[in-house]
Amino acid sequence: MAGLRRRLAPDTVVRAGEPMAAHTTLRVGGPAELYVEPASEADLAQVVRFCRDHTVPLLVLGRGSNLLVRDGGVRGVVVCLAHPGFGQIDVEPPRVCCGAGARLKHVAHAARQHGLAGMEFLEGIPGSVGGALRMNAGAMGSWIFEVVETVRVMDDAGRIAERPVTEIAVAYRECSLFRDHLALGAVLKGHPAPRAQIEQRMRAFAEKRWATQPAAPSAGCMFKNPAAIPAGRLIDELGLKGARMGGAMVSLEHGNFLVNTGAATAQDFLELMTLIQERARAERGIELELEVQIVGDD
Ligand code: EPU
Questions:
Q1: What is the mean pLDDT of residues 198-207?
Q2: Which atom of ligand 1 is the closest one to the Cα of 253?
Q3: Among 2, 72, 158, 219, which residue has the least CB neighbours within 10 Å?
Q4: pLDDT tier at 38, thresholds 50, 70, 90
């Protein structure tokens, strides 16, 4: 900690033993050995180089909405781009330039404010721009890379580059660039449309979400949709809605959401996920692949 601390500006946050349950929407997970909120890209580069030079594992956290941290916590350094400097949103129609720490909800609202259509679906995704890029997050039949023009990334030497979307390979909930790069931000491109029309689309999306998805703490959909059948419908057909392991429960509203009923542990979620995968395999011959990222130690 001391070695890292002295390389960083005073306004960069460095904490030991930070509980990850406080940084994930599932509200479970043990502590991060070191937790850092860099105050600038320069400090982020210092952290990245420090981890590379000392072979310290580095995990970059978005809003923790697609993440299951095991109960033993995370070894090494966890970085969170929560400093306001990473959360900028600048609109120059038809483009929205946003930092990795910006919330998708705020990006969608900024686009609406300026009469830019195409980003309405981002409103209901409880994530940050960085996390959404990393996962190619999507909802309502769209995914974020459909509106990305360029991304700004950092490699493990702390070097920054701008990449046009045409050079980036993406797939459903997957973008391989971020296996070895960090997202710093993106330029998104919308198209002009009447504000009332944009508002109407956003409202329709929100209504669908409220009607079909639970409000209780969750990590969104746990499993990717297999080609044969949406995971939610499959879990529903298997009669698993309401199934519980400790404090973790399959949502009664949507089968692909596992919710924290209050006192769940990461182990509860892991056991419930395994049960669902085993039933899907045994009864339907379907391999359910995780969408949620699992990190940390048991
Ligand atoms: N269904 C059931 N029972 C259920 C849940 C769903 O029968 O318990 C049926 C629905 O009636 C529908 C079908 O399954 O016919 C698909 O359900 P839904 O429309 O809710 O969409 P989804 O495929 O389950 C996807 C994304 C969500 C996104 C929604 C809305 C995945 C894994 N999930 O869900 O994304 O919010 O569409 O666009 O791709 C996430 O990625 O974390 C996530 C929540």
A1: 98
A2: 8
A3: 2
A4: very high
Which residue has its alpha carbon closest to ligand 1 atom 23?
A: 230
- pLDDT of 85 reads 96
Largest CA distance in the chain: 56
Alpha carbon of 232 to ligand 1 centroid (Å): 6
Residue nearest to atom 16 of ligand 1 (CA): 230
Kindly tell me the burial class for residue 70, based on how many C-beta atoms sit within 10 Å of its own C-beta (0-12, 13-18, 19 or more): buried
- What pTM was estimated for this model as a whole? 0.96
- pLDDT, position 167: 96
What does the pLDDT read at residue 188?
A: 98
Tell me the pLDDT band of 240, cut-offs 50, 70 and 90.
Answer: very high
Mutate to test the pocket of ligand 1, among 221, 291, 293 (most ligand atoms within 8 A of CB): 221
What separation in Å is there between the alpha carbon of 59 and the centre of ligand 1? 28
